[in-house]
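Side project, low priority. Logging it here so it doesn't get lost.
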Amino acid sequence: MTASSALRNHGEPGKPLLILHDVFGYSAFRQGQEEIIQTVLNGENVLAVMPTGSGKSLCFQLPTLVREGLTLVVSPLIALMRDQVAQLRNNGIEAGSLNSANSAEENRRVVDAVREGRMRLLYASPERLVQGAAAEWLNRAGVSLLAIDEAHCVSQWGHDFRPEYALLGEVRRRLGNVQTIALTATADVATRQDILSKLFDEATPRVFVQGFDRPNLYLAMQPKEALRRQIRQFLTKHVGESGIVYCSTRDTTDEMAERLRGDGVHALAYHAGLDAGTRARHQDTFLKEDGVVMAATVAFGMGIDKPDVRFVCHAALPKSIEAYYQEIGRAGRDGAPADTLTLYGLDDMRLRRMQIEQSDASPEQKIIERQRFNALIALCEAPRCRRQTLLAYFGERSEPCGHCDLCQDGVTLYDATVDAQKLLSAIVRTGERFGVEHLIAVLTGDETEAILKFGHQHLKTFGVGKDRGRQVWRSLIRQTYAAGLINLELAEYGRWSVTERGWAVLKGRETVELRADALRPKEKARTGGKLKPERGHNSDDEALLTALKALRMQFAREADVPAYVVFPDRSLIDMVAQRPQTLDDMANVHGVGQAKLARYGEAFLDVILRH
């Protein structure tokens, strides 16, 4: 049954829920979806802030199918448009896109479907829409709903600002102030206000902030000690799974991909330095195949709709909490468990601070970016539940989550006032002019060339911290920074200064507690070799899941679409769990709507019955 025939069979009462099941294959709405959908159906404008993976797209796709008219969707990337169009058409819904990658045949299909009134959802980039001719043509086509994805880009305060997004308010006016739904996963109060002022001239729309919690994501952060070993250890939990390893530069991205391939991982590189053809091939491979790991700069990820990314690892510190939240949000979009790990060091902190100070941003924006970055440092060195710290930044409160490294491994605090005073004294006595390694040399009594040059071996603080190792002092410096006792001043090598609170600790007016895990001996590095999975599986279930994935890949290659367009992992896992025996049983599997049941049901049922 196609989407259009499914719609004809539905009466008005309960129509959204019937479409949800028959077209999309879902038995119930996710949290927050139903109220937003009903608000759109009531004709109101909407700004929705919803966590990644919470089903934002359904909030404009489903209302489009309930009523008549064309929905115009603003999307930032061709790859995202292509994948969403493929998924909609696979569900029996007439959809298309306006982009430079279209074939002449596809462009004719789209234009004819719009002219004849058959097109239900049309995707376009903001760059295409700001052209006057495109907006005029779409106005004549009778757009009834404008959906703006990644709406934080509308705001000058958004961390992925694109100039054309800021002009979408004018596009909306050219379309006759058409009903609009703007959606994003990340928007603080200032960003939300900026979006509202730029998009809506009339009455303020309904604003929905559904919360920022992603309970299916495991959150973990570690100081860098042996980067390659730490990443290898992390990936042993994810052999054969799709994931992303974010790197800070193009060179380190290429090196990371090469090292992972040497470890037996199917790894590719993605960054702006690669030619467009290579980037497109690597992205297609990641989207269409299982078990691919992408080593990438943050140029990769925005708009990636792959639901079965099982992990995100940061090999370097993100630039802000918003960036961190967006990037880890690319894992577990299907709602199934996913893993995250962020590795960070003092060099990362200095690099990010330098990027802020050397940017072309206004002084006011630099203040905001510093505050955001300092909040990220506090998250890295948090003494308690990471999810509590993260959600508190977005203005939400929660109980300890039990699903982060700090909750599961525990953290012991100790009175670090004396250690902090030693560090603060070293900073002051060296004139607040030196960076980390020089300060550590002073504290540990290491007579380096620089120490002897400046005569710092004669300071009272020289050697007062020799009972601690260099790695311990690096951790204590990071934690002292996170606690607001010292500031990183950017010079050629970076230098540290003491804050007002730091002076209070130095003078004995305040005490400070830090994490004691830095004081513990570190585990020995593992030996090399190809990665092997740590965990075991039920062999029968694993064999069936492998067979279902192979069949999925066969269909995907025939249609030249990503595997998850046929069925996402969550559907295959549900098939394994339910073991349907008939097509009626198969219709109750998550994500199996009428169109997919007709197209794929018999073939997948045959594999299940043979197992």
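Brief comment: Residues 1-11, 523-528 have pLDDT under 50 and may be disordered.
Revisit when time allows.
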